[in-house]
């Protein structure tokens, strides 16, 4: 999941990237897979097919492949080691031509771990010539409809929030498959001219006129070739079809390859539990659409890596040739014969797809091709955004008023803390900024299609893998810089709610351990506020959430608040800090330190407390004083940790501002203020004791140089 | 308890459709749910409640649909109604930007929170052959210490023909602690609303709700739905609907340009700064949260940012 998140970051920045996975690994990536396709990011994923657990079995099976069929990826099948090599090269070319990702699937162990004598290119320039130059070679301007996130002169919002327009995005995806279907024959031909190795949508082997046809994927198809030869030598005929492309679905080619078959055995290394099998259904539908009444016979084989040899193929041919002679099918027992006339729909307003007859979208619209609203803003320059250089610890808010805001006019609730904190933080960041958002209120209120609030490059990937995505983006920054295509500095800031850092905690820790040079900025509003104020780990004990109620059986959240900074302390990341809008000068300084850390090649994490008037049940105007109270109560202490060494930024005791936790909670709205009532006195005391304990511990660590 | 009740109007499927147009946070969702619940439990009806779920936040325009039918009518359609018989508008300034008159059925009833006259509202709605009911729900809610949704809910129930006494009984039972406030709001709303019925005329005719298909479709959408920030920025959007006109009053003479307001504003492009000095507020940004008012320091000349209660 994290690996594919990194790949997504690389691809959105404009890189060419390949990933490899198998079985449960693929399912772990499942959330990212359709997102990559939907974002139109070309890349290649090698799928070494294996059965999905449980019971756990690490061997070959196609249950992973079948799960991926509907995810919007081109799907290539490589029956041999040689084909796995060749298909990887062809897949990159078509993926980049149509802006879709591609899976190259080959059989786990049978192919993935097989040693075979294969032919490889002696000169890598021949490969480069075939696949074409790397995308964005010597330019970050858009090409072939694809854009780079790092085109700082032309900021774009990638991965917006989309309502009614989504269906149009899906029409586009299908059109890309249609384009791939058009382009592939020529690409296969060119590859054959270059290498002498021919590939096609489908391999047909044996006699196309034979009454019996076996359809099998990958190694099983290869093994069955020997069975076909064997049958031939005995003076009989058999047909064998080995599909090598499953998406786009090569319906015409498969129908042609099946020839005159009366019985089609579709052998699959998987079963669709409770239904007819995957490929069998697709082949059956294809036959039905042309009024072909051939009988489909389904065989699930080889699950969990059971070997499939020539003898197995022979047995299958045998079995249905036996049925052929023994069992009499009457006319009326055949498959329903229904001739569907080709659609008369006009391709102008409603695209139709050759690879899927009778398929069209209802309710999508084409748009006005001449629509050009013209530019309403000019991109921010690094120069106008550079105010802090050399300022070090001097912070002048008046000077900082000249920092252009990196976003404008979002639709967050009045009084929301998210963009207040982010804007303040960004005033401390010089030069070009690239913002990556996790899913949450912040992204939903700023990028409602077709408008964006962001004036700088922005990318929203998923709820929880922002940090992995950022890793991919900063890797591409490094590479573009090395080759001179990105002369100016770009600071990558991943923005996450506390929820994104709950469910993405593993990937946050991963990024910190890799020490990748970007800033992770967390706005902690103590709940899943975008989805209805559900409980999260950073919430205070006793906090009322939509799933931690107050009543006779429950007194709000049951556990004490998560301390993410202390969790990250163990990564020994170079810079960790907390900040608050109530202490703006401190926040600006921390933003500068975080940027300095990134400039030195390290990872920086900064967390702020962000009020949510709506779900905390507080007045819209009290945010600033509520945050200040939380700081003074040490509910959100301000400190920083540099390479493990703690420094307290603001000590409310020294400033004579220390207040009991309950005083702050009383200001923070109805989600917290009930703890001030006598019946919750024990709860308030418990929270106070925990806050005191943590504060004392923090002060102790700050007081000892070695800590 | 079931009361003999006849729906005042129905469409060809047997449904009486109610649409409430409001801002996130107004309580339209709550009012719609309550309406649907009492229709089912107390007036012997069936139907559907459908809210819009998506990216709408507090202050953003949203709508809620309730469709009533007689028990036994199959309830098969889902999603919000586009052909309301009853329209409830929580703020009259929503009418024009959202073209709320579109899709209204002939003979429909439009209930609008407004200080304006029914004639003025009808001009905004661009409708004829409808009844317009106006009430100052904002004032009634404030005076009765209820919420904005209560007076509008009251007039809606009244116009639907639900017995006022029965609805008031239900509200009392539902929120016993707020019973007095809600009942005051309910009865004030019913008694203080003004209505006018407009005959069908040449001036305005029924019009369908536009399809909502923008100029960008599958032919010209950028790869993966990418938005070009240079041409599709929110910069020209008007956030005044969310601000409801409640923006801070700015006195430049009292301002020392300390910059603290910049640190607490969620959308600080709306604080107009030029050459290190605060110059004013862009109302198209401001949602009126008044955070800046809270932090604005007292100076010798008073406070620069204040709340204008006028």
Give a quick summary of the entry.
The complex is a heterodimer of chains A (707) and B (310). By secondary structure, chain A is of the alpha/beta class.
Task: Label this structure with key terms.
heterodimer, A: Rossmann fold, Rossmann fold, five-stranded mixed beta sheet, B: 310 residues, alpha/beta, Pyruvate-ferredoxin Oxidoreductase, domain 3, Alpha-Beta Plaits, two-stranded antiparallel ribbon
General description of the model:
The complex is a heterodimer of chains A (707) and B (310). With 707 residues, chain A is an alpha/beta fold. Chain A has 3 domains: 2-195, Thiamin diphosphate (ThDP)-binding fold, Pyr/PP domains (Rossmann fold); 202-332, Rossmann fold (3-Layer(aba) Sandwich), CATH 3.40.50; 403-703, Rossmann fold (3-Layer(aba) Sandwich). In chain A, the strands form 3 sheets. A 9-stranded mixed sheet of chain A has the order 5-13-12-14-15-17-16-18-19, sandwiched between helices. In chain A, strands 1-2-4-3-9 form a 5-stranded mixed sheet. Chain A starts with a helix and ends with a helix. With 310 residues, chain B is an alpha/beta fold. A 7-stranded mixed sheet of chain B has the order 2-3-1-4-5-6-7, with helices on both faces. In chain B, helix 6 (164-174) runs antiparallel to helix 7. Chain B is globular and about 70 Å long. The model of chain B has no long low-confidence stretch (mean pLDDT 92). At the A-B interface, strand 5, helix 7, helix 12, helix 13 and helix 21 of A face strand 8, helix 9 and helix 10 of B.
